[in-house]
Amino acid sequence: MTRYAPHWFEDFEVGQTFETARYTFTEGSIADFALMWDPQPFHLDQEYARASIYGSIIASGFHTQLIAFRLAFQSGVFGHNRGGRGLDELRWHKPVTAGDTIMVRFSIHNTKPARTSGHVVVDYEVFNQNNDKVMTARLNYVVAKRPEP
Interhelix angle for 27-37 vs 61-74, to 10°? Predict the structure, then answer.
C-alpha cells in the first residue's frame, strides 16, 4: 500500500517522520520464515518455546526487521531508492508473537549529498498493536537526486 509520493533526495528533511501500513504475524508466517532462515526452536517448537524465557513461539528478529523494511518501502517514500549502505544499531526490544500487528514510524536522521544521489540515514521504530516498541534500527539509504530539467 502506497501512502506517500516517492521522494527524491532533495525532498528529505532531517526530522521528517512517516508511518507505514500494518502487518499481522501469523503462526504460519513465523514458521515459514524460521524453517527457511532461522530454525531456532523458540521459533518452531511450541513445547520448547513455552518453557523458554518467551513463553510462546516468537518471530525471528530478522523476520521482524525484514517486514519493517518491506512496510517502509511499500509506503512509497523510497520510490527513488538506489540501494543501501548498511544497517546500524538494530535492536529487538520485545518479542513479536503470532497475532501481533506491527507498524513502522521512521524519521529522517541525516542527509548527505553525493554526485548523482544522496545518502539518507533513517531511524526506524517498530511498534506492535499495543504501541509497545518491538524494534529499532538505523538504515542508510542511497536515494537518487531529482533529474535536472
Answer: 110
